[in-house]
Each structure stands twice: as structure tokens, then as C-alpha cells.
Amino acid sequence: MSEQCKTCPSNGGCNIDPADCGVEIEKSLLGALNSIRNVIVVMSGKGGVGKSSVTALIASSLAKEGYAVGILDADITGPSQPKAFGIQKPQITASEYGMTPPLTKLGIKLISINFFLPNEDDPVIWRGPLLAGAVNQFWGEVDWRDLDYLVVDLPPGTGDVPLTVIQSLPVNGIVIVSSPQDLAFMVVKKTINMAKKLNVPILGLIENMSYAICPHCGERLEIFGTSQGAKVANDSGLDFLGSLPWDTSLNIMVDEGKVEEYKSKEMNAIIDQILKKLP
Ligand SMILES: Nc1ncnc2c1ncn2[C@@H]1O[C@H](COP(=O)(O)OP(=O)(O)OP(=O)(O)O)[C@@H](O)[C@H]1O
To answer: CA-CA distance, 144 to 142, in Å (whole number)?
Structure first.
């Protein structure tokens, strides 16, 4: 493996000739022009509660408010941001200031390990230190320039990558995402305790898939069990940022790469709260 491949996030896992890939960059200038005002980390205790979708919605809502926004997809083994935003196989260019992140339709700067894999469905089978190394490179070797908000999508749980991000990035606030299942709340408490132990401010809890609205009668149905978000937040001394409904149109938009087009009054109310905490 060439020296250049060793410092690349794909870690030699692609087939591109190092002479053609454009990521050989002078270390000293990497990230030198970056000025990131707020780093928001989105965590969940358990997989599948909608953390990546919520990350995409937070970033999209902030971009719609006119802020300069980036997304660091730190869910290295299960990256889903490229699909949600419909960015597949972008040509990544680089300058002496680092890799230039591709832009979404709203102009959100997005970086994800998927951009460096030969095929988007290739698995990333790395141990903790390599995963953590990729995240550090995405932070320090991407040419983010001026951002009002960098939203970080973490893998679920409290493993190596969440620990690396929380300990090595200047995190301004954590958003915790859960869903109404008992198990999800049991594990979400572990996440809350981890953030508390590491002394990083928690912006609050969002309960996703909290309920569904019957398309026929408009009744609010608690399909995943009784909503517990407000109670768990209250018991843990956290602010409850709000609930998001199960909404098939969100599911479809994420699948079609059009998450930026999703409109939600519930999300708008959540963003208002986040902006009050991190203006
Ligand atoms: N509120 C919602 N309404 C409808 N579908 C949703 C909602 N939230 C998430 N989904 C869908 O549920 C699936 C899982 O969501 P997502 O990938 O965001 O979860 P995750 O917690 O990030 O998962 P992972 O642990 O694998 O990273 C996706 O297909 C997504 O479109």
C-alpha cells in the first residue's frame, strides 16, 4: 500500500491508481481554512430508530434557514447519508486544504466513507482504531471552510467511534434519538450516561416514530408502543426536543434520495429549540 493510501479514508480499499486519485495533499495545510462554529452530534443507543434520518432532517432544516451546514457521516460501517441525499459516486477532488466535500441540492457539504469505496454496498470490515482514524480524517482533512453547523451522524451505541468523536471533536451539543420501544429506552439511557460521563452538553432527546396518523380518520396511533420520550427525558434531566411521527412519505423520500424535500412542522419546532440552545 502506498503512503498516500495509508492516509486516505478508504485505507487502500479502492482500485484507483494513487497517481490519479488526487488525495495526496500537504499535511500542514489540511483543514487550515476550516472555521466550524457548532458541532452537533446525533446519537442513539440502538440501531434503526431513525438516527440517520433525523441527522439528515436537522441538517436540511438548518440549511433551509440559510445556515452553512455540513454533515460528517461517522456511521462508518453503516453509512446512509449519501443515499438519503441521492449522492452516489461523486468525484472527490482535493486541494492543499483537504478533500472537497460534495454538495447536496441545498448546498450541504457531505462527507461519507461510501464516497471512497469502489462499490456503495462494499462492507467496511475494520477494527475500532481504523474506524476512529477515518473519523479523525473526516474532521481534520476535509476542506469544510466556514460552517455554522456540522452535524455528525454516529453509529448506534457507545463503541469506539462515538467515543472518538465525543473525545476528539469540539462537540457543542448532543442530540439523542430514540423510539418508543422499551428496549430502545433501556439502551438510550446508556447513551445519556455516556454523554454525561464525558461532560458533553446534551441538547435533548427526540423521540422518532412516536406515533402515526391514520390516513382515514386522522386518529393518532401509537404503533410502536406508548410514547415515553418526554418521561425518559424528564427522568434523566434532559430537555425533550419533541416527537416525530412515523410518516411513510419520509421513508419514501429517504429511499429516493430526496430527504431535503421533506417538510415537517414537528421538525421545524425541534429546530427552533436547537437554534435557541446553539444560536
Ligand atoms: N419517522 C419516520 N417515518 C418513516 N420512516 C422512517 C422514520 N424514521 C426513519 N424511518 C425509516 O426507517 C429506516 C431506518 O432509519 P435510519 O436509517 O434513519 O435509522 P438509524 O437509526 O440511523 O439506523 P442505523 O442504526 O442502521 O444507522 C429508514 O428506512 C428510514 O427511512
So the answer is: 6
Mutation test of ligand 1: which of 41, 43, 44, 52 has the most ligand atoms closer than 8 Å to its C-beta? 52
Q: Please tell me whether 80 is known to bind a ligand.
A: no
For 137-184, how does the pLDDT look when each residue is reduced to its tens digit (9 = 90+)? Answer: 999 999 999 999 999 999 888 778 888 888 889 999 999 999 887 666
Residue 109 marked in a binding site: no
Single pTM value for the model: 0.88
Would you state the cell numbers that stand for residue 56, as one nine-digit string? 439528515
Would the annotation count 45 as a binding residue? yes
Residues with CB under 6 Å of ligand 1 are 44, 47-53, 75, 78, 80, 156, 208-209, 244, 246-247, 250-251, 254
> pLDDT (tens digit, 9 = 90+) per residue, 233-262?
998 889 999 999 999 999 999 999 999 999
Name the fold adopted by 11-277: Rossmann fold (3.40.50)
Say what the ipTM of the complex is. Answer: 0.97
Q: Are 49 and 243 in contact (CB under 8 A)?
A: no
**pLDDT for 242:** 96
For residues 162-194, b (16+ Cβ closer than 10 Å) or e, as one string?
A: bebbbeebebbbbbbbbbbbeebbebbeebbeb
- Residue by residue, what is the 3-state secondary structure of 186-232? HHHHHHHHHHHHCCCCEEEEEECCCCEECCCCCCEECCCCCCCHHHH
